[in-house]
Amino acid sequence: MTNSELAIALFEACRERGIMLATAESCTGGMIIAALTDIAGSSAVVDRGFITYSNEAKMDMLGVRAATLDVHGAVSREAAIEMAAGALARSRAGLALAVTGIAGPGGGSREKPVGLVWFGVAVNGRPVTAERKLFADNGRDFIRQETVHHALEIGLQALVESQAAGFLP
């Protein structure tokens, strides 16, 4: 599926369940929420998008703890979890997607190479989850587009799993 098709599928899944959605985006700079707001009628599903590129924005807007960033860094499981939880808590959403990663071309290291992205998913009533992906270093645009694609996929997956577990209508 293309990113546009995935965005439509996630939009429809949220609309059918009466769920609002929020994003907390760092390396994508708002591309996930943009994919969703490209859809006519998106206000029925999209509550808000937090673009938290800097550590200060992550702390101020989402409540990510300074200690988390100091100990684990912005590109970490812990930061992704706190970003997703913060977006859920600071919105009217029932589903929040968070992404934080290194899109390159610089900024990578041996421990955290270019292409590393952490995804956080928060659904009302469920523990926040995180997932690590390492995308090929095929350029900044490639990494960002793949991040959007995967975020939309795991958003859909979270809705299906949450509904099956009885957390959503």
Helices and strands, with pairings:
Blueprint: H1 3-17, E1 21-25, H2 31-37, E2 46-51, H3 55-62, H4 66-72, H5 77-89, E3 95-101, E4 116-123, E5 129-134, H6 140-164
Parallel strand pairs: 1-2, 1-3
Antiparallel strand pairs: 3-4, 4-5
Helix pairs in contact: 1-6
Task: Report on this structure.
It is globular and about 45 Å long. The two termini are 26 Å apart. Strands 2-1-3-4-5 form a five-stranded mixed beta sheet, sandwiched between helices. It has one domain (3-163): CinA-like (Maf protein), CATH 3.90.950. Helix 1 (3-17) packs parallel to helix 6. It has six helices and five strands. Helix 2 links the parallel strand 1 (21-25) and strand 2 (46-51). It is α/β, with parallel strands linked by helices and 169 residues long. Pfam families: CinA. This is Competence/damage-inducible protein CinA-like protein. Residues 5-154 form the CinA C-terminal domain. InterPro entries: CinA-like_C, CinA_C.
How far apart lie the N and C ends? 26 Å
In which order are the strands of the major sheet placed?
A: 2-1-3-4-5
| Shape by Cα distribution | globular
- The assigned structural class equals alpha/beta
Main beta sheet, described?
5 strands, mixed
Strand content: 15-25%
Assembly classification: single chain
Low-confidence stretches: none
Which fold name corresponds to the CATH topology?
A: Maf protein
Helical run tally? 6
- Estimate the mean pLDDT confidence: 96
Name the helicity range: 40-55%
Number of domain modules: 1
The total strand number stands at 5
Give me the CATH architecture, please. Answer: Alpha-Beta Complex
Protein name: Competence/damage-inducible protein CinA-like protein
Domain CinA C-terminal: 5-154
InterPro entries: CinA-like_C, CinA_C
Pfam family, one: CinA
